[in-house]
């Protein structure tokens, strides 16, 4: 037996038990006792935040039962010698096993599962993307975004939109799973309700300024103009064509397209070929500039030769002239 063994009762060759104090054999022994084997049930699984119970070895249980039996039949008291030198058999206390009962503080629980509430910040006027980043950093899990203009436009590129209204309002303490609704308009638009304020301010400024009467000069009589025939009004677009134009604008805000590539994308979205062409042409897009933007996107992703880049742009649907313009624009 080495000094690494734990203190306890250990079986001897003659079937008796002898106590090892962790360093040396003591004089405490017990007679050999026939005992039935004791089965120790396995501990039930515990949640991850609780420690497991200690399982008592069968040998220790058998030894403990032996001590109780010997203590019952041997009523011999301890001698008058020094404590520890004359200890009667069966009177040595068995080591107690104390089960730890760990508990987690509120701070530890919050570190494990995260915060459960957050204070709603003031997001009005902020960039939509930055507002979403702020909410996510505070632990918000449920967000929805709407078009504040009522046109039900999709916010394809959040950084191009600004927050007009928010629900819940700022300063409220809300659970992290509260649905936060942000209504926004494009950054070059005015939030609904602000349009009336702008003309009012302009009118007040105009009233404050003293009008200057222009000096009138007599102009020579102009020859009478002959009435020109009115140009026929352009036919109004159908609802499907308006939707195609609206989606085409959203795609071009997100990335660059050739005319044929944009038409194919709109057809893929379910529009007819004629409506897709209307949507692509309605925006009066400079397709050469689109080729230049697409060329830069490719160079940001990987390297190209001039001819390879032109071939790639033509594959995207640009004409050869537009592809050459794109290659020239990026310096190839």
Distance between the termini: 82 Å
Poorly predicted regions are 46-56, 75-101
Spatial strand order of the main sheet: 1-2-3
Instruction: Please give the count of helices.
Output: 10
- β-sheet strand percentage: 5-15%
Largest sheet: 3 strands, antiparallel
Mean model confidence by pLDDT:
75
Number of strands: 8
Q: How many domains is the backbone divided into?
A: 3
Written as H for each helix and E for each strand, in order along the chain, the element string is: EEEHHEHEEEEHHHHHHH
Please give the share of residues in helix. Answer: 25-40%
User: Cα-atom Rg, whole angstroms?
Assistant: 43 Å
Structural class: alpha+beta
Quick one: overall form?
A: elongated
Short description:
This protein has 332 residues and is α+β, with helices and mostly antiparallel strands. 35% of the residues lie in helices and 12% in strands.
Overview of the structural elements:
This protein is of the alpha+beta class. It has 3 domains: 1-102, no CATH class; 118-186, Trypsin Inhibitor V, Chain A; 239-329, no CATH class. The protein contains 10 helices and 8 strands. The chain has helices spanning 58-73, 106-113, 128-137, 197-208, 239-254, 259-268, 273-282, 287-301, 306-315, 320-329, and strands at 8-11, 17-20, 25-30, 117-119, 142-147, 161-167, 173-175, 179-186. It has a 3-stranded antiparallel sheet with strand order 1-2-3, covered by helices on one side. The chain has a 3-stranded mixed sheet with strand order 5-8-6, covered by helices on one side. A hairpin with a 5-residue loop joins strand 1 and strand 2 (17-20). Helix 8 crosses helix 10. The chain is elongated and about 140 Å long. The two termini are 82 Å apart. Mean pLDDT is 75; it is low at 46-56 and 75-101.
